[in-house]
Amino acid sequence: MYRYRVIFIKEGDFTCLSHLDLQRTFIRALRRAGVPLAFSQGFNPQPRLSFAAPLAVGIESDGEYLEFDLTLPRESDQLKSALNRQLPPELAIRRVQEVDPDAPFLTSLVQAALYIAVFPNPVAELASAVQSLKESAVLEVERKGNNAKKRVDIRPFIYSLHLQNASGESKLFMFLATGNQGGARPGEVLKLLPLQDGLIRVRRLAIFVQGPKDYITPEGETLSAYLDRMCINT
Predict the structure, then answer these.
(1) In the chain, which residues have pLDDT < 50?
(2) How confident is the model at residue 195, as a pLDDT?
(3) CA distance linking residue 131 with residue 111, whole number of Å
């Protein structure tokens, strides 16, 4: 068994794809590229693949992660080229890495994600509203359950919020918990703020797992190093 990790972007009209549609898109692309996918056992075998942290509809991303198992090895650059020929530019593959097939899939390891929301025009009361969220002990939002709606406190899942105002626009950086242990969604945070007319663009910049001393990206870059490299002061 051979496992590969694909890092790809998601933007433009393809942010409207649901998680299931995105999964189907990649399975078709892998098959058209002639990739020897490994399948699960049982009565209904499925390709052995996993997205690290499914992205909500409407959110762009600089780096989504897909891992899949193959029955035969492939050279990473050739695999990247073969997949990019089958995918639209809005889902372009940035990197392909071979990883340990015995390691757990990333989906069970991801614990946090960094998002940016860009407001087309500065909102006068936005700074005070963000500060109010940071100082709040409880921030309840409504979510749909299996049978009814429920109230959920997302404050423990908001690790940090940072607002930058420059060049006629406001940028809100949100470092939020995500993954199997629970989390906050960027849309839930934005609903707690005084919003303005106009399009608010939301993009996921990176995902993180827990490292020995700090959160790290799947490639091993610490959160603090990532923020410094991207010139994000939190």
Answers:
(1) none
(2) 73
(3) 24
Structural tokens at position 109: 């390891």
Which domains, and CATH codes, for the chain? 2-107 (3.30.70.580), 109-229 (3.30.70)
Residues with Cβ within 8 Å of 64's Cβ and at least 6 positions away in sequence, in order, are 7, 8, 9, 10, 51, 52, 55, 204
Q: Are 67 and 109 in contact (CB under 8 A)?
A: no
The answer to whether 184 and 196 are in contact (CB under 8 A) is: no
Distances (CA, A) of 228 to 2, 14, 181, 231: 35, 30, 27, 5
pLDDT (tens digit per residue) in 196-211: 656 788 999 999 999 9
* Strand 201-210 relative to strand 215-216, pairing: antiparallel
Gap between the Cα atoms of 41 and 31, Å rounded: 19
Which two tokens mark 173?
A: 């950086």
